[in-house]
Amino acid sequence: MSTKLPLYLVDDDEAILDSLGFMLGQFGYQVQTFNSGRNFLAQCPLTQAGCVILDSRMPEITGQEVQQKLLETQSPLGVIFLTGHGDLPMALSAFRKGACDFFQKPVSGKALVQAIEKAHRESQANFEQQSLQHKFAQLTEREQQVLTHVIQGMTNKQISEAMYLSLRTIEVHRAKIMKKLEVSNMAELVQHLAHLNTLLPE
């Protein structure tokens, strides 16, 4: 289970926060509770991986408005709705905006835990992709070209010939690429960047 990732509960009903927080804590989750969407948005690190369980009807800011804010900030947080006032249009809207699941209260612990695990997996993948894109954006155009050749399996000598650059220059570029992408060797680089083809120049 992904109990190391944070789990946020947002509901204006303190009894729900207490009971649900206690139950999920028994599963080993690091649960943080918020009694309003405003407090959640103000205090939660929205750029990190994790999962938020939202009530839909809350004063000041609704669960739907919280989800919209997360979309606007490109937060990697996985979203699960748990509401006593849900309907089909509301659920469809939530899913269209990327919600991982939508439950009516009450919900079984097993179903909720399964949804949290799914949300955590998707959130971690989104976070890693965003982090990789941020690191990739720091590469110069020449470094991106070198990286493209590296992922294609070309040796330094082959890259130097293809780009009409000295072998030493290619070695320097590779060292800078590894530093910026925070990898220690080329095997790790290729393993982490195998899915980066959409970002690389043709």
TrEMBL record:
<feature type="domain" description="HTH luxR-type">
    <location>
        <begin position="132"/>
        <end position="197"/>
    </location>
</feature>
<feature type="domain" description="Response regulatory">
    <location>
        <begin position="6"/>
        <end position="120"/>
    </location>
</feature>
<dbReference type="Pfam" id="PF00072">
    <property type="entry name" value="Response_reg"/>
</dbReference>
<protein>
    <submittedName>
        <fullName>Two component transcriptional regulator, LuxR family</fullName>
    </submittedName>
</protein>
<dbReference type="InterPro" id="IPR011006">
    <property type="entry name" value="CheY-like_superfamily"/>
</dbReference>
<dbReference type="InterPro" id="IPR001789">
    <property type="entry name" value="Sig_transdc_resp-reg_receiver"/>
</dbReference>
<keyword id="KW-0805">Transcription regulation</keyword>
<keyword id="KW-0238">DNA-binding</keyword>
<dbReference type="Pfam" id="PF00196">
    <property type="entry name" value="GerE"/>
</dbReference>
<keyword id="KW-0597">Phosphoprotein</keyword>
<dbReference type="GO" id="GO:0006355">
    <property type="term" value="P:regulation of DNA-templated transcription"/>
</dbReference>
<keyword id="KW-0804">Transcription</keyword>
<dbReference type="GO" id="GO:0000160">
    <property type="term" value="P:phosphorelay signal transduction system"/>
</dbReference>
<feature type="modified residue" description="4-aspartylphosphate">
    <location>
        <position position="55"/>
    </location>
</feature>
<dbReference type="GO" id="GO:0003677">
    <property type="term" value="F:DNA binding"/>
</dbReference>
<dbReference type="InterPro" id="IPR000792">
    <property type="entry name" value="Tscrpt_reg_LuxR_C"/>
</dbReference>
<dbReference type="InterPro" id="IPR036388">
    <property type="entry name" value="WH-like_DNA-bd_sf"/>
</dbReference>
